[in-house]
Each structure stands twice: as C-alpha cells, then as structure tokens.
C-alpha cells in the first residue's frame, strides 16, 4: 500500500462508528452595526498599526514622499501616477530592480475596516506579489467602494484562485519580549491613500 | 511512567531569569488578548462555530483530504502523502535536490519542527535557514523553541543581543539591545538570502478543501518572502489543517490573530492555490502529513486536540507553563495543548505530561476552538499507566471514602497527626511515602474542624 492509501485507510478505520458530522452553528456577526462609519474606522485601525493614512488621490504624491523610482503594475491608472517620481512599470522586472526601487504604488481588491486589513488578489492595479513585497515602501490606493466593515463582507469580493496577500499595517514582529516593532522583512513603510473622489 | 517533566520542571524553576522573562512576556500577551477578544461581542459564537467546523473536518477527514488533493493538483501543485516524519523529510529533501539546491529558506512552521526537518536536512548535507526572527534566534543559539508562537520567549533582549553578537557574522559591531535594532540586524542578515533562495519550505495554517488553497499567517514578511521569491515551494501540512470552505476563514481569521498575538489582524496573510504563471513559485509541492494524527482521530475524547490552530493562547494563561517554560515539556508542542497532543501523537511516551497541569481550566476558557483541555487531560490520566503504590493508595482511599464512619475516623486521625503543623497552612515536605506526593506539591494541613464538625458547632 502506498502512503496515500495507507493514510486514508487509517483515517477511515479511526472513524468507524464515529457517527455523522455535527451541525455547524453560524450565529456570529457577518457585518458591523448598521450606521458604522467604515472609513473612519479603517483610518483608526490603520493608524493603530502605524500606517500613514492620506485622503484623496491628490495626496498620492505626498504619500510617495521623496521616493524617486516607484514601481507600478502596468495597469495602474494613469491619474494615480502623480508627483515628481519616475514610475517604472513592472514588466517582470528582475528582483534586483525591485530591490533598488524606492517605493511601490498599487491598488487593492478590498479593505476591512474593523481589522484595518487591505487585501490584494492580483486583480487590476495590484500586480504580482513580489512587486508589493520587495520595495521597502508600499503605497496603496484604497477606493471608497472597496471598503467594507467586516471580514465576512470582504471574502466574497476576492478572486479566490489568485494569490492573495492580506496586509494589516507595515511588517512587524513581536518576537522580542512580545514588544511590537514595525518593519522587518516586508515593506517597512505603509502609506494608505483613501480615495473618495 | 516517564518522569521527564517533573525533573525538567524542577531545573527550570531554579532559573530566576527564565521565570522573569516568561512572566513578563506571557503577562503582556494575556492582557492584549483579553482586550481584542473583548472587542467582539460574538466571540463565544465564533468559538462555537470554529469548534463545530473542526469537529466536522475530523468526521470527514478522508473525503476532505481527497477533495483538497484533487483541487490543489488541478491548480498545478504536486501533492505528496507522508505517513510519518521520516517519509516527509525524505520527500522534502528529494524535492530540494531535484531543484538543484543545497539549502532552503524556511517559514516558521510547527509541522516542520515536529518532523525535525532541519536536523534531517543537516544530516543529508542540506542547510535549512529559519527566517522568522524568533526561530532565527533559537537556531543561532543552537537551542530549542520553547513556545509555539514566540519560540525565543525564554530570552530577553540583552540575551538576544549577545546571541547576535556571538553567532551572526554580519551583526553590526555597535548593536544595541533595542528590539528595533535587533530586528534591523535580522533584516540585513536575511535579505540577500531571501532574494537569492531557490527553494523555500513552509507549513500552513489552513488548507482549503474546496479550492486546494493554502494559507500562511505571519507578521514579519519573511513568510511572504519565502512564499513568493523562490522557484520551488514545499509546504508540509498536517492533515488536520483542512477547512472545508474558503469562507470558513471569516471565522478562523477573526479568532487566530486575536488569540495568538493579541492583534485584530496579523500584518500579513498569504493565500495561494497551486502555481500561478508569472507570480511566485512555479514548482509547488504540498506534503500531507499524518505522523500520528490518524491514531489520535480514533479516540473520541482525545481527537479534539486535532482542532488546535496553534495560537498558543493556552500556553500564555497556563500557571504551569508560565513557571516552567516550554523546554520542560520535552516536546515540540509545550503547554496545555502539548500535554494532550504529545502523548497522543506518540503513544506510550510523554505519559507524565497530562499531569503537568493543575486542571484550573484557564486553557479551555481562552481556546479559540474550544478544546476542552482539562477533559482530555483527565481522560489521558485515566488511560495512562499507574504504579502499584498509587493503585494501592487510591484503592484504599476509595474504600475509606465509601464508608462514612471510617472516613470520619480517618479525618480525625489526620487532624490528630497533623497537629504539629497546624497554623502553617501547608506542609512542604512529608517523609516517605508521603514524599511522593509532596515532591512536586504542597499539602494543605487539615483544619482544626472538619466541615461537618464546624456545621454541628454552628447549629448548637
């Protein structure tokens, strides 16, 4: 018997007489209280993670700060490419080029206000995963209609079979005395531009 | 019966620095967890759902494993099955060699700790580099992890600085013990390795049956680096990690980060389904690991240990863990969950671990998937071996307790004999054979009056 057959046989043997699977209750919330201001909540949660938050696409240049070379997915809207930086489209750029870039500018698929989570699913304006990972500064444009209150509202918006990255603040570690330190291997700076224009 | 834990615990209790590090760290994380769990008014409903989903998974493991395999394959992953640690290690080493590599970068993973993948790789002449900060500290120190989430919890910042200075060749010469400076040193140390690695090894927090996706939850970005940059990715996944549906993440991704790091959400969660052209590794392997899990599944009471999502909340609240630390448990899974998982994964070993508990139940209270750890502890104690002396004493106690008159006489005798100690509250050491009891616990001195006597006096 090969490993697969043997493991399956062992599992079936262990389950003999186990009876039917239990019913799964689903009495938890799937949305926040009606009337919650999800934009305010998202901003509060992002700032709690020490991400910097800006309002309006006019603030993109500000968010990019003094970055000179900014990597962007090829399908990033032209109107987001503002300010004095040089925008380099990702055409399977070599890793060294990504590493040499000052920042990366992307959009996102969804944002969850209650946990301050921004989700990328390789959809429009998001690019491949390496692009939003290797540069040390990530600027994400979150359009107003992409913001939901609760995690359960965000999952249906994701492209399931695409690679996903859920981002909640800049990279961090709590491995030393459980004290949170922002900035390890992922982008150390995270700027979020909330666009409601 | 094994006496490894009581002996190791005694050594650990004699280390004041360790106890102070642990008390500081677990105290901090407990407070954070309580705060963020308290923010959700449906916390109990989430726990109930999570427990039921996991029980459902256990009941349908064979069919869900096959569904996962089918979908992961269709998405371009190669799925392997490993009966035990040795088989999983062989498969991982073979894939690494076939990829033309002699080293791998690793995402923190309990499954690969469990199968001792690093040690196996080293024996095969391959190098496995830990990239999680705490795992890196432990690996540099040639030590063992002592906590599921924060393997270096037993070190404080000054000790970590010393490890970096002594063992990390590229550590800056003016390294301070500021956690930010230490994290920066680790970033520089690993950066080149991430960007040039050919093969990565990961575990997975969840495996989604309906899509064949794997999910890795992390904080530092080392996970994203390993899961994205190399050409080949090997994920070692315990078969109990399955979830039926992607939407189940709406439950588990609320519970896990809040229970483990006390955050509303962890900084990074990666989800990938097989291989994606032009985005991340194109040579994607998944090793489904049994290694004792199918045996645990046979025990109706014990199988709930397979619901564990490795958050480590139970470690942080455990009065025993807080004082002894993780090493004393002598197993990769320490703390309350380890005390029920280790003896079940390796039957006949670790039979002292179910006693490494005061049965206070704090672990059950905080468990996000509602594993009734005290129930399983008692269940395992009942099943474990009991020495002739213990059986004789317990048998005698049973006979005395079943006869009220005899019981009252015994209590009177105990009160009489313990008069010299009265007023001290408890006895720390009894002569043999009582020393068997007081060797690892204090014994309360019987009070002047029994409850019955006190009640009678009160009635008068």
Description:
Chain A is of the alpha/beta class and 197 residues long. Chain A has one domain (33-195): NagB/RpiA/CoA transferase-like (Rossmann fold, 3-Layer(aba) Sandwich), CATH 3.40.50. Chain A is 19% helix and 25% strand. Chain A contains five helices and twelve strands. In chain A, the strands form three sheets. Chain A has a six-stranded parallel beta sheet with strand order 1-12-7-4-2-3. Chain A has a four-stranded mixed beta sheet with strand order 8-5-6-9. A two-stranded antiparallel sheet of chain A has the order 10-11. In chain A, a hairpin with a 7-residue loop joins strand 10 (172-173) and strand 11 (181-182). The longest helix of chain A is centred in the first third of the chain and has 12 residues, at 3-14. The mean pLDDT of chain A is 96. Chain B has 460 residues and is an alpha/beta fold. Chain B has three domains: 4-8 and 311-383, no CATH class; 40-291, NagB/RpiA/CoA transferase-like (Rossmann fold, 3-Layer(aba) Sandwich), CATH 3.40.50; 404-459, no CATH class. In chain B, 50% of the residues lie in helices and 12% in strands. Chain B is built from 22 helices and twelve strands. Chain B has helices at 4-13, 16-38, 43-59, 61-74, 85-98, 110-114, 117-123, 133-140, 157-167, 179-196, 222-228, 249-260, 293-297, 313-317, 319-324, 335-345, 362-366, 373-383, 388-401, 404-417, 435-438, 451-459; strands spanning 77-82, 103-106, 127-130, 199-202, 206-208, 213-218, 232-238, 242-243, 268-273, 283-289, 426-427, 443-444. In chain B, the strands form three sheets. In chain B, strands 1-10-7-4-2-3 form a six-stranded parallel beta sheet, sandwiched between helices. A four-stranded mixed beta sheet of chain B has the order 8-5-6-9. In chain B, strands 11-12 form a two-stranded antiparallel ribbon. The longest helix of chain B is centred in the N-terminal third of the chain and has 23 residues, at 16-38. The radius of gyration of chain B is 25 Å and the shape is globular. The interface between A and B is large, with 72 and 93 residues. Strand 9 of chain A pairs antiparallel with strand 9 of chain B, so a sheet runs across the interface.
């Amino acid at each position: 018997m090969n490993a697969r057959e043997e493991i399956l046989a062992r599992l079936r043997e262990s389950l003999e007489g186990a009876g039917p699977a239990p019913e799964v209750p689903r009495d938890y919330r799937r949305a926040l209280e009606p009337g919650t201001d999800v934009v305010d909540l998202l901003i509060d949660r992002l700032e709690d993670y020490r991400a910097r938050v800006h309002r309006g696409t006019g603030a993109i240049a500000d968010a990019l700060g003094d970055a000179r070379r900014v990597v962007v997915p090829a399908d990033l809207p032209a109107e987001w490419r503002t300010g004095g930086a040089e925008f380099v489209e990702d055409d399977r750029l070599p890793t060294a080029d990504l590493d040499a870039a000052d920042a990366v500018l992307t959009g996102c698929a969804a944002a969850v206000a209650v946990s301050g989570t921004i989700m990328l699913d390789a959809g429009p304006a998001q690019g491949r995963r390496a692009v939003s990972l290797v540069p040390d500064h990530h600027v994400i444009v979150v359009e107003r209609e992409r913001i939901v209150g609760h995690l359960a509202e965000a999952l249906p918006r994701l492209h399931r079979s695409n690679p996903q990255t859920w981002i909640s603040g800049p990279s961090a570690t709590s491995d030393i005395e459980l004290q949170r330190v922002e900035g390890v291997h992922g982008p150390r700076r995270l700027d979020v531009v909330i666009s409601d224009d | 019966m094994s006496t490894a834990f009581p002996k190791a615990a005694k050594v650990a209790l004699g280390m004041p620095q360790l106890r102070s590090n642990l008390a500081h760290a677990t105290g901090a994380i407990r407070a954070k967890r309580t705060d963020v769990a308290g923010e959700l008014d449906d916390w109990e409903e989430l726990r109930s759902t999570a427990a039921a989903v996991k029980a459902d998974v256990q009941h349908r493991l064979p069919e869900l494993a096959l569904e996962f395999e089918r979908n992961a394959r269709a998405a371009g992953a190669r799925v392997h099955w490993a009966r035990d640690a040795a088989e999983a290690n062989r498969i991982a080493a073979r894939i690494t060699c076939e990829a033309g590599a002699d080293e791998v970068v690793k995402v923190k993973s309990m499954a690969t700790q469990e199968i001792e993948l690093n040690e196996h790789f080293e024996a095969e002449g391959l190098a496995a580099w830990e990239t999680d900060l705490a795992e890196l500290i432990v690996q540099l120190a040639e030590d063992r992890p002592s906590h599921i989430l924060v393997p270096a919890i037993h070190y404080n910042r000054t000790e970590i600085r010393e490890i970096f200075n002594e063992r990390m060749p590229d550590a800056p010469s003016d390294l301070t013990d500021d956690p930010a400076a230490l994290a920066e040193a680790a970033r520089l140390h690993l950066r080149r390795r991430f960007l040039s690695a050919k093969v990565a090894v990961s575990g997975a927090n969840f495996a989604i049956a309906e899509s064949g996706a794997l999910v890795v939850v992390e904080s530092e970005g080392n996970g994203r680096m390993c899961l994205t940059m190399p050409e080949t990715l090997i994920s070692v996944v315990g078969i109990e990690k399955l979830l039926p549906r992607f939407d189940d993440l709406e439950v588990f991704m609320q519970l896990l980060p809040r229970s483990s790091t006390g955050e509303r959400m962890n900084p990074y969660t990666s989800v990938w389904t097989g291989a994606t052209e032009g985005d991340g590794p194109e040579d994607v392997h998944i090793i489904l690991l049994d290694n004792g899990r199918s045996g645990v599944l046979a025990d109706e009471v014990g199988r709930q240990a397979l619901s564990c999502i490795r958050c480590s909340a139970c470690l942080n609240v455990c009065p025993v863990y807080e004082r002894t630390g993780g090493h004393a448990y002598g197993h990769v899974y320490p703390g309350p969950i380890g005390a029920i998982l280790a003896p079940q994964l390796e039957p006949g070993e670790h039979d002292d671990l179910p006693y490494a508990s005061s049965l206070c139940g704090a672990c059950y209270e905080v468990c996000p998937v509602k594993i009734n750890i005290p129930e399983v502890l008692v269940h395992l104690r009942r099943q474990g071996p009991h020495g002739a002396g213990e059986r004789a004493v317990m048998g005698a106690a049973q006979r005395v307790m079943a006869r009220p008159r005899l019981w009252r006489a015994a209590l009177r005798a105990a009160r009489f004999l313990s008069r010299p100690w009265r007023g001290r509250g408890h006895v720390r050491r009894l002569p043999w054979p009582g020393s068997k009891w007081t060797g690892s616990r204090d014994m309360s001195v019987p009070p002047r009056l029994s409850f019955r006597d006190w009640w009678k006096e009160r009635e008068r």
